[in-house]
Amino acid sequence: SVAGAIAGGLTTPLDVAKTRIMLEKHSDVKKYTGTVNTLRTIASEEGALALYKGVEPRVMWITIGGFIFFGAYEQATALLWRTKMWD
């Protein structure tokens, strides 16, 4: 969960760029052309911190998801060993 949170935080700028490109897809005016161009445009027009918009909820959901996945995995593994399905 901690590794997922760190990875989620570090990759937030890529997620922001992807979202901007996707939202612009149906627009007549194209402002963003590619990932690097999008990152540069956002940073120059809105500031570097704009690349981290939404980092808190993203990290929170990835962390919660990691805890749930790990807990479910542990429970499933224990059940399989108890029922001798993994002999």
The largest sheet, given as strand count, sense and whether it forms a barrel, is: none
Quickly give the structural class.
Answer: mainly alpha
Q: Helix-strand pattern, N to C?
A: HHHH
> What oligomeric arrangement do these chains adopt?
single chain
Radius of gyration: 19 Å
Task: Report the span from N to C terminus.
Answer: 29 Å
What percent of the residues sit in helical stretches (DSSP H or I)? Answer: over 70%
Give the percentage of residues in beta strands: under 5%
Overall 3D shape = elongated
Count of β-strands: 0
- Count of helical segments? 4
Low-confidence stretches: none
Mean pLDDT comes to: 93
Structure notes:
The protein has 87 residues and is mainly alpha-helical. 71% of the residues lie in helices and 0% in strands. It contains 4 helices and no strands. The chain is elongated, with a radius of gyration of 19 Å. The two termini are 29 Å apart. The model has no long low-confidence stretch (mean pLDDT 93).
Q: What is the structure about, briefly put?
A:
The chain is mainly alpha-helical and 87 residues long.
Strands, helices and their partners?
Blueprint: H1 2-10, H2 12-24, H3 35-46, H4 55-82
Helix pairs in contact: 1-4, 2-3
Which key features would you list for this structure?
single chain; 87 residues; mainly alpha; 4 helices; 71% helix; 0% strand
